[in-house]
Write a structure and sequence with these properties.
It is an enzyme of class 2 (transferase). Catalyzes xyloglucan endohydrolysis (XEH) and/or endotransglycosylation (XET). Cleaves and religates xyloglucan polymers, an essential constituent of the primary cell wall, and thereby participates in cell wall construction of growing tissues. With 282 residues, this protein is mainly β. Helix content is 14%, strand content 37%. The strands form two sheets. It has an eight-stranded antiparallel sheet with strand order 1-4-13-6-7-8-9-15. The longest helix is centred in the N-terminal third of the chain and has 21 residues. The N terminus is likely disordered.
């Protein structure tokens, strides 16, 4: 009986180790900076935690750069009072003045107030294209899936099974389509900006703040050098030609009507000389 029990335990440990190895996405695919912790849950999924205290935040950045793809991750945000903090999942070509970037940022709030999801697109260094939404659930009680689909026609933002935004490409306007981008996740002190335009700062008595990530997936093309075709996974039509259908546009309108917190195309104070050209076309 004892030997049978020992064998069962050994098999269970081996299965968990194999599952964990198969799901070891953090150190295989990313470099890390600051306060980052990697563990495994009971199902063998790797769970990566970013930790913010007064000394440092945390971040991970993909080793690989991509040009078009579908990128998703599951996140569980900071519980309770997260005012002043910023959690992110985004793509960027770098920090230069002409960089491209696609953002999903979660701006912390005081206890009881909804978290704000900020979506933004930068092309050739031009940003200021934010759509912000109050989340319609508590993102700290469980994991939710956040997805960016990026192709040469549009950029789609998705929360769980619901599309909340489509940013279209127009031939005469800047669009992030020529610069490969890497994937990043960060947790940092955004007190100067994140909550009520910086009026509410981080309350460090609640530190450390922890955000957990799991289930990362990049179904995407990689560049092979100047003048060479992209290296793409099989079946890229899953996302390469993806645009919204009628019902999916319905969820975008639902999010706008019920949960939109800010629309750059309605901010006349910010654009006194006229709104960006795409505002009249969407």
């Amino acid at each position: 009986m004892a030997s049978r029990r020992a064998l069962s335990v050994a098999v269970a440990v081996a299965l968990l180790a194999a599952s964990a190895s198969a799901d070891s996405w953090l150190y295989d695919k990313f470099t890390t900076d600051g306060n980052v912790r990697a563990d495994y849950n009971a199902q063998g999924q790797q769970v990566t935690s970013l930790i913010l205290n007064q000394q440092s935040g945390g971040a991970f950045s993909s080793r690989q750069k991509y040009l078009y793809g579908q990128f998703s991750i599951q996140m569980k945000l900071i519980p309770g009072n997260s005012a002043g903090t910023v959690t992110s999942f985004y793509l960027t070509s770098g920090d230069g003045p002409g960089h491209d970037e696609i953002d999903m940022e979660f701006m912390g709030n005081s206890s009881g107030d909804p978290i704000v999801l900020n979506t933004n697109v930068w092309a050739n260094g031009d940003g200021k294209k934010e759509h912000q939404f109050y989340l319609w659930f508590d993102p700290a009680t469980d994991y939710h899936t956040y997805t960016i689909i990026w192709n040469d026609k549009n950029i789609l933002f998705k929360v769980d099974d619901l599309f909340v935004r489509s940013f279209k490409r127009y031939p005469d306007l800047a669009y992030p389509g020529g610069k490969p981008m890497s994937v990043h996740a960060t947790l940092w002190d955004g007190s100067y900006w994140a909550t009520q335009q910086g009026k509410v700062k981080v309350d460090w008595t609640h530190a450390p703040f922890v955000v957990s990530y799991r289930g990362y997936n990049a179904d995407a093309c990689t560049p092979n050098g100047d003048g060479r075709p992209l290296s793409c996974p099989a079946g890229t039509d899953r996302w390469m030609n993806r645009q919204l259908g009628g019902a999916e546009w319905g969820t975008v309108e639902w999010a706008k009507e019920n949960y939109m917190h800010y629309d750059y195309c309605k901010d006349g104070w910010r654009f006194p000389k006229g709104f960006p050209a795409e505002c009249a076309r969407n």
